[in-house]
Amino acid sequence: MKRVLSFMLALCAALGMVCLGEPAQAAGKKLIAVTYDDGPGPYTERLLDGLKKRGVKATFFMQGMNAARYEKTVARMYREGHQLANHTYNHPDLTRLSAGEIQSQVNRTNSILDKAAGKGADYLLRPPYGSYNSAVGRAVGAPMILWSIDPQDWLYRNAATVKNNVLRNAHDGAVLLLHDIHSTTVDGSLSAIDSLKAQGYEFVTVRELFRRRGRTLSAGSSYSQANPNGKDLGPVQQPEITSQPKGGQLEITITAQKGTAVYYSLDGSDLNQQSRRYTGPFTVQTPCTVKACAAYNMNGSRSDTLEKKFDRPAAPAPVLHIENGFLIIEGTTPEVAVYYSVSGAQDSNGNQLYTRPVALVPGVRVSAYGAGEGYYNSASVRIAYSPLGNVFRDVFPEAWYFDAVDKAAAEGIIQGQGDGVFAPKDSVTRGQLVTFLHRISQETGAAPAGEGNPFTDVPEGKYYTEAVAWAVENDVASGYEDYTFRPDRKVTRQEMACILYRYMTGCCGAALSAGGLESFRDRNAVADWAKEAADALSASGILQGDTEGNFRPADGCTRAEAAAVLLRVQGYAPPVI
Ligand SMILES: [Zn+2]
Description:
Layout: H1 2-20, E1 30-37, H2 44-54, E2 59-62, H3 64-69, H4 71-79, E3 83-86, H5 99-117, H6 134-140, E4 144-145, H7 159-169, E5 174-179, H8 183-198, E6 201-203, H9 206-212, E7 222-223, E8 240-246, E9 249-255, E10 261-265, E11 276-277, E12 282-284, E13 288-297, E14 301-302, E15 306-310, E16 319-323, E17 326-330, E18 337-343, E19 352-353, E20 358-359, E21 364-371, E22 381-385, E23 391-392, H10 402-410, H11 430-444, H12 465-473, H13 493-507, H14 528-539, H15 559-572
Parallel strand pairs: 1-2, 1-5, 1-6, 2-3, 4-7
Antiparallel strand pairs: 8-9, 9-12, 10-11, 10-13, 13-14, 13-15, 16-17, 17-20, 18-19, 18-21, 21-22, 22-23
Bound molecules: zinc ion.
C-alpha cells in the first residue's frame, strides 16, 4: 500500500512538472476579432491574400452596394472562412430613417450577401458611424456589433500609425475596427496582426469570439467586446469522413463535434447555408469528392472544410451460401477475388483465396470479403454453420441466444425465414406464438387438433390457420369479442404468459408453483387477468425478467427470446404416452 502511494506521489510530481512547463491554458487563448468596414474595395483582394497567408479569419461589415460590385471578392471571403456581415446598403445614419427604410437597407444587403453565403444565412449588423437607438435596434432584426478598439485608420492614412494605434490598444476579447477601403489599412493591419500573433493572440471572427466566451448574441442588442471570463469553448473541430464499401458502393459516415451541424457536398462544390445537411450515413458512387465542414453557424462559426476524394470503386461484397455442408461463394470476377476465413470454437485460420467450394464441419462461422487491384475492399460478410447444422446469416455464436435459436430451429419449433435469415430481433405475433406451441404439441401429442375456427380474420390456408383452430379447441388462446383473433398483432409478455400457462396447465397437466411475481419491481404493472400466469411462469423460470429486475409485462417478445422460452416450455411437457 505504501509503495503504491509513493508511486502515485511520484506520478503527480511528474505531471506537475509537465503542467509547469506550459503556459496557463485553462482560460484559453487571448482572442481578438478583426473587422473591416465599408468595402469591399480595390485593396480587399490583397488583404485576403495577406490574411490567407497568416491563417487569419476576419469579419467584413460590407456596404451592400460595394458587395454587389465585388461579387467575386465576397465569394472568396466566404469560401476562405471569413464572416460576412452587414453594414447597410449605402451607409446612412440609421437613426434618421424610418423602420421601413432601415429594414430595406438591411434586407437589400442581406440578399446580396446571400449569393455567397446561401439563402437563409444569418448576418450580424454594424450601424454606420456606430449610430443607433432603440428604434434602430427594433428594426434591424440582428445583433449590432460595435468595437472596442478604433485606431482611426480612416484619419491616419499611414500604415505605421495604423499598426501602432492597434498595438497600443490591443486587449483580449477586443473587437478591432478597420476599413479595407484604404491601402494603408491593409498594410498596417497585416503588420499589426504579425505582432499580435507573436504576443499569443488568436484571430477569430466576431461570431466565434462571442461563442468561445460562451456569450449569446441577441437581435437588437449591441456588443463591443467579449472580455475574458475564464471561458473558452475552443475552436470548431473539423469533422471526420470515413468510408466503408457497401455492395459496389461506398458508405460515407461523417462524425463531428457535438452541437455542430455538418454541411457537405459530393460534387466538389463549395459549402454554404444551402448545402446538404448530414443526417446519417449515405452511399455514393465513386469516383466522388466529399467536402464537409462542421458549423455552429455557417457564416462565421464553422470549421475549415475537409475534402476527401474517393477515386476507386468498391469491390462488390461476396454472397455466401452453405449447401449440403459446402461453402459456396459468389462474387469472384477476373478483377475481384474473394478471401474467406473459417473460424471454429477453437481455431481460426487466416484469410484464404476462394477458388472452389469448401467442405465445412458444423459449428463454424465464415467471413469473406472482395478485394482487387484498383478497388476498395468490400465490407466483410458473415455466415454461420451451426453445431446443429443450421445456416444463419443473422445469428452468430457471440449472441446469448445462439444455442437456443439453433436448437429451436433444428427441432422445427421456430423456422427461419429462408436463405439463412432468422430475424432474431423481430417481434413475435399472436399467430406465430400459437403456431410455435402447436408444433411443440404435435411433437409431444399434448392436445388434439382443432376443427376450424370462428374468427373473421383467420382465413383458410395461412401458416397459422391450423394452429389457431388447435389453440381455441384446447383453450390455449381465445379471440376478441368482435370475433377476431388478430394473428398479426405483436404478442405482449403478459399475453404470452397467459397462453403458455393455459397450454402447460391445460394441455400438459403441468403443476406450476406460484410466487414468482413478487420479486419484480414492476409487478403492479401486470394486468389482473395475467397475474396468475405471470406469477407461475416466473416462479418456474420459464419467463425471466430483465437485468434490472423488471417483468416488463407490456413489452413485446423477440423471436430469439421466444426460442429460449419455448425450449423451456418443451422441457416441462410430459413425455408422449
Ligand atoms: Zn462605415
